[in-house]
Design a protein that fits this description.
By secondary structure, the protein is mainly α. Helices cover 52% and strands 7% of the residues.
Length: 283
Amino acid sequence: MAELAFAHDALLPQRPGGQGAGAALALVVHAGLVAALTLSVDWRAHTPEVFSAELWASVPQPAAPPAPPPPAAAPEPPAPPPRTQAPPEPDADIAIERERESKRKQQAEDRKKEDAARKLAEADKKKQAEADRKKAAELKQAEVARREAEQQAREAKAEDERLALLREENLKRMMGQVGGSGGATSSGTAAQSAGPSADYGNKVIARVRPNIVFTGTVVGNQAAEVEVTAASGGSIIARRIVKSSGHKDWDEAVLRAIDRTPALPRDTDGRVPQTIIIAFRRE
């Protein structure tokens, strides 16, 4: 109980006026500390004492060789030069480069335009040459056609004249044959021996007509005049239309009928005229 009471009293705050013992103890401790410092420090000045010493050896000994120098260190590789940043391009250089680039582009565009214009001119020139060639060919063909037409016209005119003369001679022979029967215009037996008899044309028509095959219609009474050339024995050598009837189908039907006729009949004198013109009408 006494220990508990003492501990409890120590924890309690001191009563006023109870710090005197502590203060006295502190003063005693500080006084002892000052006395110890005073006694331990020598405050007087003393002259320093000088001493000398000599080193010697009884037997001389050679000095040791100097130590070899340390090996030289391998040289370090040189450091790469510091990378310097390229100075910025001045505005003037940029402007010049841009102008050059613009000129290059403009030149490229000009070359493209020139190439296109050249190709277009070549194409136009080629087209013009082709057109000139075609025009020259057409003119040449027209000239050839004109000459052929003129030649055909001359041949047709000559043929018409020949047929007209032949028709006139046939008429004269026929008139002479009629006159030889007792007419006043008779000139003897020469006309009778030279031309066919008056009824020979009807004999030829009677021989050819059964061979005509025609189912069409012929308007009008136009005749197809055909020139027939025969050998001395009566076999037909050639035939051609000298005057059309105006109906191509009828003309061709007459020609086919003549082709089917093996030979012309003989005249009253027993001969076959070498050339004769016969008119066929659609009845």
